[in-house]
Amino acid sequence: MERSLLRGAILIGLSLAHAGCAMFGRFDPVDFYERDPKYSLALQIALATGLTRPNVYTGKPEPINDVPRAQLAAALKGTGSGAAGRELLHAAGLATGVRKLTGAGIAPPGFSPAGAGVMSILGVLTAPPSVKHPALSNHFLVWMPKSEAATRKDAIHKLEELLLKAYLDTLPSPYTIKGTETVLYPFLFGEDKIETHYLVRGGVCDIGKTKCALTPSVHEPYEVDRGPSWQSPGPVYVWHNCLPGHTGDCPGATIRTYCADYDDAGNPINVRDLPLAGEAEHLQKMSALLPDWVYIYSAPTNERPYPVIFHRGETLYFIEPENESKNQKDKEAS
Fold this sequence. Notes:
Elements lengths: L1 H4 L10 H4 L21 H9 L3 E2 L6 E2 L6 H8 L8 H12 L16 H4 L4 H6 L12 E7 L6 H18 L6 E10 L7 E9 L9 E8 L3 E3 L11 E4 L13 E10 L5 E6 L6 H10 L4 E5 L9 E4 L2 E3 L5 H12 L1
Antiparallel strand pairs: 1-2, 3-8, 3-11, 4-5, 5-6, 6-9, 7-8, 9-10, 11-12, 12-13
Helix pairs in contact: 4-5, 8-9
Protein name: Lipoprotein
């Protein structure tokens, strides 16, 4: 019973991917580059990349918001004084999350029915909408100072090298790299594209005719004249998730690890992501090897039903800052 209740999440209302467009006015992530003390750093980063955005009527960020400390404290009463970070956030999920809702949906206290949606996070994960909300996937969130690279092409190359090295240096057992292969993608117009695939061995990759590989992919970044106030104050190259509902190219950076079976004619079948890709422990270890201007958003999972952001090996949680909690108490007392 307790475990089922803890399956709530900070991430709620992903039905907004379709129905909630009218709930939001003009939105530009750059508007959130100035640090706001009422937000946790995690929430500030999510706002500055469009993973969440303020509801035009309530002003509250949706679908990701900070856990109010008052609710967190109440939820922690039954967890014991030795609760570590993981248990603490499970309690936070209990305090603010959405239970398995049915029918038209019943909003938890402090959340609108539209924000609550009609599904828990686990329901969304098992039956995603046709346009997947970016908050349901892992992302590299990057503000590279222009002093690190003279041109966009140099910046792309540099970030690709950094991400690939961190990924390979933290590749979990039993997987190893056994070599590379180059694949040419001819284009009718413009330059042909050449990709280097890193061949993976170990685990499921050694079963039958299965072949596994990982491929880094860094798209064209945005360029802005001023980075976030908690990062470089000067001009930066920016990579992050697509904005909700966006179609087409995005300034994203990914490393896809996949495997495929092959038929007798040598054709790939049953292409699928390798389970090691995106494991939270791996992402956290990667973050420790990356520069200060790289963050990793880790989406909710069945095992950890709330999102976090990894930075330099540390975990940033979506929890209301202490100063904002104190301000709220002062308002209620006056």
